[in-house]
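Ticket #290: bound-state structure for coenzyme A.
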Amino acid sequence: MTPVLRPARPEETDAIIDFLHTHMKSSWKRERWARVFDQRWVRPERGPPDLGHVVEEGGKILGYCGLTNADRRINGRWERSGSVGSLYLHKSLRGQGLGRALMVNACASPGLTITVIGTGEGSRPLMGPAGCKLLDRDRFIWRRQGGALPKGVRIFTDASAFGPLLTDDQRQMLADHDGLGIVPVVLDSPSGLCLAVFWVQVKGDDVSYWDAVHVSNGPVFAAYGQALADALLPADAKAVLTADRRYLPPDTDGEVEVFGDNYWYKSDTLDRSQVDLMYTEILLLKLKLS
Ligand SMILES: CC(C)(COP(=O)(O)OP(=O)(O)OC[C@H]1O[C@@H](n2cnc3c(N)ncnc32)[C@H](O)[C@@H]1OP(=O)(O)O)[C@@H](O)C(=O)NCCC(=O)NCCS
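RESOLUTION: The complex was predicted; output attached.
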């Protein structure tokens, strides 16, 4: 039998979940795998979600590369993003180019900004053929030094205080993430305003990471990263504040940490610095941690 590669259909979601649960990671229950199909931000008027592609052989699903989609507004324009949340090919079919073909097809939708975050070494050779470019391989780190807030700088953590300073798109973005555990912060400075959204998690060695998953103004963030760390990080616990390199100006200097896995992206409409980890990547981060 010849394996067939084709778009995934909405009615075969259960079969795909069974495949992922049985072959990719059985320690994840089916309910958890089902969250890969969470398309809560897809607007039907902008078209059905792209569910990725399957490899089928003899009526059985034996491979899948899945996408979680979201419609969101960036700079007054609708954008659709898709995060690769699962890529798996049955062992019996590996080594004949099908994994590469799955990724190439998953990334082929025009107008969809694709991100591939934390998928491991195995997916690296598939990125170039799929048209994906390096999004980032490292992040800048700030530690608390206890300094006073620089003159003319204000930092807001309360939405009722910073809400009026934001654009409609920014307010909508924060409302879309209600209940998902993000930490929005606004820094107002003589050189401009920056909305930074943090995702806080404890990583190895009990260090609390305040990772910026969205930065609206890279130059302002880079200039006042230390002020943010001093204002936000707890004094009585190990903690760092981080921002991926792409958000910040090219001449940014400072302590850097290299990721375990490279981040990849493909976009016809967005510049690399505009590709953040909001929406679908937040869902997948929550999925991996839960
Ligand atoms: C990753 C995976 C989908 C690749 O499928 P595949 O059909 O065997 O890959 P292909 O035959 O299309 O190979 C494409 C290229 O990737 C390379 N490659 C494949 N798997 C690799 C791995 N695990 N590590 C390093 N390179 C790998 C191949 O050598 C080939 O390189 P080439 O073009 O230079 O010859 C498959 O191995 C798999 O499902 N692995 C387990 C799950 C996994 O690792 N998923 C990715 C992260 S979530």
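RESOLUTION NOTES: The helical segments are 13-24, 30-34, 98-106, 124-127, 159-162, 168-176, 218-232, 280-289.
TICKET STATUS: resolved
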